[in-house]
Amino acid sequence: MTEQGVLRISIGVTLLLALLGIVFGLLSGSYAIVFDGVYALTDASMTVLALVVARLIATSTAPGASAKGLVAHFTMGFWHLEPMVLGLNGILLISASVYALINAVGSLMSGGRALDFDQAILYAVITVAVALFMALFVRRANRTIRSDFLALDAKAWLMSAGLTFALLVAFLVGLAVQGTPRAWISPYIDPVALAVVCLVIIPLPFATVKQALADILLVTPPALKEHVDAVAAAIVARYGFLSFRSYVARVGRGRQIELYFIVPQGWPAMRLEQWDVIRDEIGAAIGDDTPDRWLTIAFTTDPEWAD
Questions:
Q1: What is the spatial distance between Cα 214 and Cα 83, in angstroms, rounded to a whole number?
Q2: Membrane spanning segments where (predicted)?
């Protein structure tokens, strides 16, 4: 199965759960369930964007794509859109959680709220089962696809399952205390559960947002830079070049690498095919020769062309 196929399935299931959550939340009087539905709806919207970006990237890296439609206007590719979507997704999920936390605190301060525990429990059981199934499904599919989008999607399903399971436990407790001396805690079950869940899930997207910002700002990945420098240094020593300059960046799933080799002036003339052999050697040594690797190799006697 392709990345786009997995994302389509995820979008469809997420939309169904989002609508289910909003309806059950309103019927049961649970703001926590309404938040669960809104959270799922936000995630579905971002997954739609992820699907669009994934399709654009696949189109732009296909053979002969440079002359086709929109690709002709973005000749440097669409990799830069991927971290933008991932970052926006993480920020929206954090924002929704913070807003829900504020509402939960406000509800606690106003005496809580009553809700229909039977409907709330039914919703929670259905959602936990579906979310766990989808998390396992997406994670298994991503073992071969290795997509950041799918990794985030699997994490979102796990977050959704954890959130709803916490609600399920809280609702079961609320149902159990009905008609007992502890029934006074019932109105506080929903806002307390919502507050606890929000405190748990708010930090989870931070790592994704941090990596997305690093990609957007073209922060050099240390491991990739070290590897490229080692390959370039070996080439300099082997062919007697003076030095090299390397420029490396990660942009989503894309790897952008530029290498400039400083050749001594008066270097004996070589056929272009011979230079291409050196380029092929460098490319093979760097590895990861996929459509998502953008590798530029140049040779010059003037260091200014490399700086």
A1: 9
A2: 6-27, 84-108, 120-137, 157-176, 188-207
| Phi, psi for 246 (deg, rounded to 5) | -125, 140
Q: Give the separation between CA 7 and CA 54, rounded to whole angstroms.
A: 9
**177-193 confidence digits (pLDDT tens):** 988 888 889 888 888 88
Asked if 39 and 31 count as a contact pair (C-beta separation under 8 A), the reply is: no
Residue 263 is given by DSSP the state P
Contact 4, 153 (CB under 8 A): no
* Among the listed residues 152, 15, 141, 178, the one whose alpha carbon sits nearest the alpha carbon of residue 93: 152
Phi, psi at residue 297, to the nearest 5°? -130, 125
Does pTM surpass 0.90? no
Q: Where in the chain is the domain with CATH 3.30.70.1350?
A: 222-305
DSSP labels, 38-93: HHHHHHHHHHHHHHHHHHHHHHHTSTTGGGSGGGGG-TT-STTHHHHHHHHHHHHH
Q: Which residues are 299's β-sheet partners?
A: 261
Residue 76: is its pLDDT beyond 80?
no
Contact of 100 with 163, CB cutoff 8 Å: no
Q: Where in the chain is the domain with CATH 1.20.1510.10?
A: 3-216
Q: How far apart are CA 69 and CA 155, in angstroms?
A: 34
| CATH code reported for the domain at 3-216 | 1.20.1510.10
Which token pair is 115? 């809700």
pLDDT digits (tens, 9 = 90+) for 227-258: 999 999 999 999 989 999 999 998 888 889 99
How are strands ordered across the β-sheet holding 254-262? 243-251, 254-262, 293-300
Whether the CB-CB separation of 49 and 85 falls below 8 Å is answered with yes
Residue 220 φ/ψ region, left for φ over 0, alpha for ψ in the -120 to 50 degree band, beta for the rest: beta
First and final C-alpha spacing in the chain: 44
CATH number of 222-305: 3.30.70.1350
